[in-house]
Amino acid sequence: MGSHRRLAPSGSDRGASVAVVLSAAAAALAAVPAAATPHDDTRTKVDRLYEEAENATEAYNKADERADALREQVGTAQDRIARQQERINSMREALGSLAGAQYRSGGLAPSFALLFSDDPDDYLDKAAVLDRITAHQAGELKGLQEALRELAQERAEAARKLGELDRSRKAVATHKKTVEHKLAQARRLLNALPDDERAVYDRASRSGRTDLPDLGAAAPASGRAAAAVAAARSALGKPYLWGASGPSGFDCSGLMQWSYAQAGVSLPRTSQAQRYAGRQVPLSQAQPGDLVIYRSDASHVGMYMGGGQVIHAPYPGAPVRYDPVGMMPVSSVTRV
Q: d(Cα 54, Cα 46) in Å, to the nearest integer?
């Protein structure tokens, strides 16, 4: 029987084998995701910090708005307490005069001194057995009793609101510290980037999605929307200032509130509340003046201007400007 020998590969076969090996190696390398550069990681961290700062800013605005409302309520309550106290003083004086007149005429019962007691309830419990108290006097005393009860309720309510105001002030301070901390971190990270990388970050923040519907160039839905659009345009170039609602600087929801205020429309202070300040419409039907709410937590808002563009206050260091409507995930669109 003849022996079997392995044939040595020809030159062309060797070339083919090498090609196969190289091809397989290239495919294997392609399957391994490219490692993120430190700069990519920095930009991702900056995005996250800005988003967290924006959330904290909205919480700050909400707490600050609540504190303003509580301050007004406390002031109103204190005014009512002062007026009620004046009324009680007048009633006490009138009853004192009546008691003096009865005393001078010799008709004052000893128990009439209870008029000046701090416990008119106790007095009224006993007044029924006093044969010297007239129906008029009893009516006056009953009025005093009601006034004192109302005064006690007003004071208790004012104390409750003062406590709530104190808690709201503390919340404002806490959210302020959080915002400042996040923004300081973001600034440090951005400042550490080379100039060209910072430019890349800015371009990336202004890029839009390409899978959005054709929005065209529709006209504003109403006269007030047109006035708000004009106001927003007048704010172009103004700086981003967190917690600010114009006219020298704005955060995102502050710009919307100010723009619509110029049109005579009062919007809530936060983007979460602005989401429900009107009728929800599909993005495909957006018209200039509509509020475009971003992210699932509604932490950012811009105003649609037509042609697939919004005006908004982006983040610290970026002025009020135009950007593509699809610059970040759209949560909803509100027509005011």
A: 12
The residue assigned the tokens 């000046």 is: 116
Parallel/antiparallel/unpaired status of strands 291-294 and 330-335: antiparallel
Cα 242 to Cα 295: distance, rounded to the nearest angstrom: 18
Active site residues: 252, 300, 312
pTM strictly above 0.70: no
Residues composing the chain: 336
Mean pLDDT in consecutive groups of 10 residues from the start of the chain, 336 residues: 40 41 40 50 79 79 77 79 79 67 50 54 53 60 76 79 77 78 81 79 68 68 94 94 91 96 95 94 94 92 93 89 91 96
CB 329 within 8 A of CB 308: no
Cα distances (angstroms) measured from residue 275 to each of 123, 232, 278, 291, 316: 57, 18, 7, 8, 23
Nearest partner of 62 among 241, 240, 269, 246, judged by Cα: 269
